[in-house]
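Lab notebook, page 48
Experiment: co-folding of the full assembly
Goal: obtain a model of how the components sit together before planning crosslinking
Operator: M.T.
Materials (sequences as entered):
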Amino acid sequence: MLLMILATSASAREVIVGSKVFTESVILAELATQLLDARGIETVHRRELGGTSVLWSGMLRGDIDCYPEYTGTLRGEVLASKSLQSDAQLREALAQMGVWASGSLGFDNTYVLGMRKDVAQRLSIVRMSDLAQHPELRFGFSNEFMRRADGWPGVKQAYGLPQSDVRGMQHDLAYRALVSGAIDVTDLYATDAEIAHYDLFALPDDRRFFPNYDAIFVCRSSVAEDVKQVLQSLENAIDAQTMAGLNAQAKLDRLDERYVAQRFAVERFDVTTSAGLDTRMSRIWQRTREHLGMVAVSLVAAIVIAVPLGIAAYRNRNVARVAFAIADVLQTVPALALLVFLIPWLGIGYGPAIAALFLYSLLPILRNTHAGLADIGRDLRESAEALGLSPAAQLRYIELPLAARSIIAGIRTAAVINIGTATLGALIGAGGYGQPILAGIRLDDLGLILEGAIPAALLALLAQGLFGVLERRLVKAK
Amino acid sequence: MIVYEDVAHAYAQAPSLRGVTLRVPDAATTALIGPSGCGKSTLLKLAVGLVWPMRGSVTVDGERLTTENIRRIRHRIGYVIQSGGLFPHLTAKDNVTLAARYLRRDRAWIDARVAELLEIVQLPFELLDRYPGELSGGQRQRVSLMRALMLEPEVLLLDEPLGALDPMVRFGLQEDLKSLFARLRKSVLLVTHDLAEAAFFSNRIVLMHEGRIVQEGSYRDLVERPANEFVRTFLRAQRVTPDA
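Observation: model returned without errors.
Model output:
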């Protein structure tokens, strides 16, 4: 009896696939999970469990069965003491520890050095050894790369690089510095989504300095044979460019990793998997939060700046001239151009999207605040003054209430423009309703497009209505 | 008492006052009259610091107006303009009590004062909750007068307060105002362009022309002893002749 229970629970035990805390690992683990599931093997994906040591020790303990790993990491970190040279040696060492490894999935996610394509072309740099001819180049590397033996110290020696302007910086900052031209070269991972996004050139490692970081799956040796077979079907299925594309879908297009894996499974293996995706409503809700977040933060910031500025402009003609000149110019900059201008300072994501929306909100609010105040008749202004009210009291009790209709109209205009413009935020990874629209256009999926376009239109109408109510409640003059 | 001492003023290059000296005595009504643009409204605005003299001085009860003391002095002066100047977003009551609330006067005092003023200007209590747009022209001017009187000022400046009203309403309000001025014994400076109205309110009429005072005196003085040709023309234009 007891044996029977043990037996059923053992056979019913699902396969647990783990992933590390970064997009590529999540996508690979999700792909494996879905393919296993499609084969009738019950599988769960425990996502984003931690770094290498957490996944590795978790697997040895039996908390997880499989996870995606890189040969370079196993050689250099997990089994560093054994100084393994070939893949065969690695496989053997793993087997001794009770670990099975698949063959390479088809890409080598090693370090590469990257430059802006235009800079590389101008200096005719086509491979890493060409860097030695250009001692004036400025290098900015991630802090980890600066320290590691297989990072900058090793590269410098192997290629005899003469550059002296070499700085360590945060990885994301390095991308921005590279794009804005503050540095010329940085370290990248071969499948980084940003390579395509920023149009960078990854220099070939012509002296084969960087160790191989072939992506593989590792499992406890005890997993069932059919699990291993499914994972082996992934061998050589994904090249670096494909992986970078999948990473970009998840990271820049903000598509759910499960969805990214599902699409890939259909395209590459013609296997329709169940991704266990969020419902459409929960996706829309998530995007509504992102979209509203962008609009609300930028709008509030614009109100805080533009209303006082409008008051100052009403009081002082010079302030008016300067403020309107700047706001007018800002308004004429196309939204897309503004977003691109902001990337070198604010990177991609929420920051530049909010900054751009903020700048677009300034003019309508500034203009309407100024116009609302300037339209107040001289009789009323003088009556308020003759009552002996301080300028602050005149503003608070008389001028702002009288200008309220105009100010609210300005805020309403800004809000509606913002709700529309915020869809462009998706172009720089800020999420929101633009995300499904953009992804839908790229993937030719009308449903996805509508999933963004309809809520965006509804939100704009809702904003119109709400501000109308607000106006009626706040503006009392009969 | 308001004293103007050789006051000159100009609006953007166009002179409006060219040296005016005038005393506005306590407890009496002084009527300022003259054609449009003669500077009579400017004289009123000078007394509440809405415009400032380029030459000469304005003193209120011996205190020369400066940007420092002007706000305090405004609380002692009631100012009513032709359009009433009521704030459209505030009810009649809020218009009347705005300055008192701004000065943090006691609520009970404010309520008592409002009740008193309703009686003085003869307005029914129910009108207090209406917005200016819901009041007739005559009612608006009465509310405007309440607002001007709220802080118990010694001086009332009235800039054509009846100018926009139709003749019947105007007639009634003239009567009420005259008895009100007599009762309150305020120093009143009233601007009008109607000589009959000026004569009705005051036996001290100040006739202005092109930024100067051309004659000061009672209606009879003006009619019987016009100071110059302009006075004669002005009287003719008002259809008042010495023989009338």
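Interpretation: Residues 1-76+155-168+186-239 of chain B form a domain with the Rossmann fold fold (CATH 3.40.50.300).
Next step: discuss with group before ordering constructs.
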